[in-house]
Amino acid sequence: MPALVAFLDANVLYPSALRSFLLHLALADLYRARWSNAVHEEWISNLLRNRPDLTRERLERTRRLMDKATLDSLVEDYEALIPGLHLPDEDDRHILAAAIVGGAQVIVTKNLKDFPAAALRPHRLEAQHPDKFVQNLIERSPDLVLQAAETHRQTLKNPPQTVAEYLVSLEAQGLPGAAAALRLVYSSAV
Question: Are residues 153 and 116 in the same domain?
Answer without folding.
Answer: no
